[in-house]
Amino acid sequence: MPLSLPLLSRREFSLAAAFAASLGLSSKLSIVPASAQTAAASAGTDFYTYKVGAIEVTALYDGIWQKPHDPAFIKNATVEDTKAALAKAGLTTDYMPIPLTVVVLKIGDRYVMVDSGSGGGQWQPTAGRLATAMKAAGLDPAKISAILVSHFHPDHIFGLLEKGTNAPVFPNAEIVVSATEYKWWMEPGRVEKLPEGRKALGQRIQAAFPGWKNFRLVEGEKEVAPGVMLVNAPGHTPGHSAFLVTSGNKQLMVSNDTAYVPALLAPHPDWQGAYDQDGPLAIESRRKLLDRVIADKMMICGAHFPFPGTGSFAKDGNAYAFTTSAA
Ligand SMILES: [Zn+2]
């Protein structure tokens, strides 16, 4: 499946090659500038497959929220600051681009999905391509045996819920989530304590999930699928989790929302998003996770990274530099 991506300049190419070599990654690795964010998607390519050792990873593009600029979006930065960060990463400044990518891991003959996408437009009307992307990638939803859920925000769980009825979309898949996350949202009186904008979400979670028999709640950090560890990364939500995929000497950190939109948070890791429930804790988790990814020379992907959602981080003073890549 051809990816249509901008050509690299000679300098970018040599940087990319040096970087790939430093990570010990395949010589086929191509690193593309962040401006390629939607190139693959606009070319009609909604999935991208790469390997982490023996595990096959398929990135599935659900769509993009073209969020109007909002001064409340980052608590400690202005709209001008966020526009400058987008421009520096080669992205549009017309709106805040928040793409959404879901990954499916093929581990042996098992298919394990991380998060569920946003449910065919239930989050944003411009993000509802997941089912089509799965089909294009030759993935059968009925064969997904487990879904690892990072947290209970709409763009990560609405794909579990049938629109209108809340019936389970994957009744035969085990749904694995941090016990902390599940219990926080289920606590009696939780909905009343949520901010106005989150009440409907809390009500939906409390109405739907208690009747489901297929949840597996995970205490602490444990192996949740062969070669996949749940990693606690709280702050975005109380039980927000990343998932570390290991096969042979290769590792991929599926970071979900820990680094959110890297065009903003790589150069400004201390920015606090309105979407982070506990800003200081989210910053602590972000730095801890990114430092680990860099120290251990891992690949990293994120739900809101430029499609196909995979890349690498490097230290840049007290901040980070993000390079999007397709292995
Ligand atoms: Zn998200």
Question: Can you describe what's shown?
Answer:
The protein is an alpha+beta fold. It has one domain: 4-Layer Sandwich (Metallo-beta-lactamase, Chain A), CATH 3.60.15.10. Helix content is 25%, strand content 28%. Strands 1-15-14-13-12-11-10-9 form an 8-stranded mixed beta sheet. Strand 13 and strand 14 form a beta hairpin. The radius of gyration is 19 Å and the shape is globular. 46% of the residues are buried. The structure holds zinc ion.
Gyration radius (Cα, Å) is 19 Å
- Which structural category do the helix and sheet elements fall into? alpha+beta
Count the E strands: 15
Spatial strand sequence of the major β-sheet: 1-15-14-13-12-11-10-9
What is the top-level CATH class? Answer: Alpha Beta
- Bound molecule kinds, no repeats: zinc ion
Terminal CA distance reads: 13 Å
The helix/strand series, from N terminus to C terminus, equals HEHEEHEEHEHEHHHEEEEEHHEEE
CATH superfamily: Ribonuclease Z/Hydroxyacylglutathione hydrolase-like
Tell the overall outline. globular
Overall tally of domains: 1
The number of helical segments is 10
- Percent strand: 25-35%
Mean pLDDT: 88
Show unreliable segments: 1-42
CATH architecture: 4-Layer Sandwich
Main beta sheet: 8 strands, mixed
